[in-house]
Amino acid sequence: MLRRITKSAVLPSILFLVSGCAGTAALPEGPSIAGTILDEAGAPVAGARVSAFKDLGKKDGADFDWLGAEPVEIQAAKEGRAGRILPDVPPGTTDVELVLPRTGAIEGLAVDGAGAPIASYRVRAEPVSVDATYVRPRARWLAVPGAEVQPPGRFQVKDLPPGVYSVIVRAETYREAQTEDITVEAGKTSRAGTVTLLPAEKEAD
Q: Is the overall model pTM greater than 0.70, yes or no?
């Protein structure tokens, strides 16, 4: 079980320093971890949130309030950017570099067998091949009022780390449809094309 051992702080510059505990006590003298936050082009990223986590295992958490000698996991995140995980960072490290690329999106159109927009449906993007160092987003269903969006039937799934995804679409009275191998790039919107949902087979009496 991972436990956050530092206060998660929004950092005003590209430099960060991890030290101390999750409470409000003053930071003691001792080991720390420092580094920089960059974007996919190597430019500075300000305002990221950086935290350190340590595996508690079966031990009492009382001994894990402060950075010690054991390596920790560093996580960095910022809205609009893919969160990053860096495992096994030894306390005392001063040259950590975390790259937070902009998230991407997938958009497409859901229609029925006749090509008419689906009035109401759910869609989600399922990660197929995403770098293990990214904080993986929860694959959740997004309700789409297809009759109200422009153009009708259009969907857009946002905040996706770069990688390869499948898009799954579900609607009542229709069979589930899926589009595979959609590559998402940093800061770009990928096209899933038109996803066609066919009527569900009626159960025999």
A: yes
